[in-house]
Amino acid sequence: MSYKKRKPQILFNARKNKKINDYFSQVPKEDQNDSTISQAKAESRKSPRDLTNLQDQKLLSPKKIQQDQTPPSLKTITFTLDVNFRKNRNMKHTLTHNETNSLYTALKTLTAVKEEIDSQQGKEMLVRGIEGIEGYINLGMPLCCFPEGSHVSITFSQCKREPEEHKQLLEPQDQASTNYVLFYIHAIGSKKKTILKCGELHKSGNKLCVFGVKGETIKDTLRKDGRFCSFIESDHWKLINKLDTIIENTQPVDELEGKLFQVHTELRKKLRATSVTQDSQSENKNFHELKDYIVDEYPTLKTEREKLRAYIKEEGKKRKKKLYIVHKKNFGKLTKNSTSVKVLKHLSKASDSVGFLWWNNNGNEGCATCFVFQGLYIFTCRHVITDVVGKAEQSEWASVISQCVKVTFGYEEFPLTDAIFFDVKPWFEISDTDLDYAVLELKENGHQVPAGLYNGIGPVPVNGLIYIIGHPDGEKKSTDGCTVVPQDNRERKCEENFQAREAAGCHFSTSFVSMYTQRSFQELLHNTNVVTYDTTFFGGSSGSPVFDSNGSLVAMHAAGFTCPYQGGVSNIIEFGPTMESILANIKENKEPCYNKIFGNQEDIEM
Length: 606
Description:
Radius of gyration: 36 Å
Shape: globular
CATH class of the largest domain: Alpha Beta
Strand content: 15-25%
Number of domains: 5
Largest sheet: 10 strands, mixed
Distance between the termini: 140 Å
Structural class: alpha+beta
Helix content: 25-40%
CATH superfamily of the largest domain: Phosphatidylinositol 3-kinase Catalytic Subunit, Chain A, domain 1
Oligomer: single chain
Mean pLDDT: 75
Low-confidence stretches: 1-33, 40-44, 51-68, 84-88, 269-278, 326-336, 507-520
Number of helices: 19
CATH architecture of the largest domain: Roll
CATH topology of the largest domain: Ubiquitin-like (UB roll)
């Protein structure tokens, strides 16, 4: 009896239990087994409430939590290794991976991709969407951004990016799938400007798939993308959507989902010239400002910055007159020109009939110029129509044109917020590939179509100035006065221009809107159906009307022989079919249509 009374007093004495616990907590490792048994005995005597708490603690142990976690979501896509020298080319591969990882991380888990990367050292992987997703895809994009059933194609291109830039591009993202926004950017910026580091992507029709996180700005998203040139660091650019909407780069990406944009870069204000009469100290200051401007304007010269500075400084010392002043005077001489008010009035009236022709054929976008000839009938170039319809069968051309083409005559300022667009009827009966012309018919929309130019047709002047009105590079309507190159002087003029471009380091190429051959270049010299001239109007100006000094319509601007020059385009010679030859061709080959358009007139007054 006395034993039973003493036993509970010893076991449930709180102070003694505390000392026992303290003691067991210091038991050496080799004695842990014995202490564990003793501890278990002590716990077996604890109250029901203590045991319940102990069970809850065991349920929340790290091992149990890890077992109860939901496994990561997986995403499956297919891809094709589009390389000519591999036996498995054109074979589809299946990739299943954690959807929170990047595309690149997932691809590198496959042996076929790793082998391809190893064999393509020094080149950059390009991934293009074929099904489910469009455009060239950022390799750092998480798999959760890919729609189900997506299929992509993998190619490789010469890499011009620095290794650190490429590494940054592939950094994994850590966002919920609902936080991402996918949108698209044209590979070519406005004014045909190069905006991408990868030259292979700089092709008409290409677009980039860009992903951003909700809340971040457009500028930050494109900067982190890694594929854009250094202009992205400045504030002098914006996005354009459907020609009539400007979105500043400071705006968030939240509302861009699924939309296609073009990057529009602005020209910085050029350093203003100062008076020649300034003293030498001020002149020297301006020279150094110009020197700094030249160096800073081109980021690609960073590695040669100091060499370039030293060279310009040395050249400045050698010359008695500063280089800046010489250029300034010479530039003034070359660009000085004047046009009579009478000619300006003629051109102003005629310009109302000049239209901006724009098309979007399932992502194939482009623009050109056109002009009203009579009533609802407009002229443009035949090669423009070829660009519009793409690979469609010729029997479908009229339908495709009607669905894709729009015309406005009010593109004189940007954006086109108040512009009125006309659709085109599904009618395509008059065109010619040799003379490169086509006739379309506008649909009535309740608005007045500008007056036609058929009453003011004239012969091509033998020499002097002619004037082109159009939309060069898809820009707002403008006029270019250019010198006529007479037929007997064409060959000499081409040789002079060609030699001048070669001396300046220009590599000759026949890169013009319509696909002419070297033989065509020779035929052009003796072609009486075209007028030749010098102009700065290139892409987007095809179909522009050409006028003489009296405002008479004499030709339609079609194409030219050009070569790349200092990052731009330099001309050899440009040309367009005369209106006399176009109308004669229509009357000879399409007389019923000719009579329909001109109201059975015997001849057009010249």
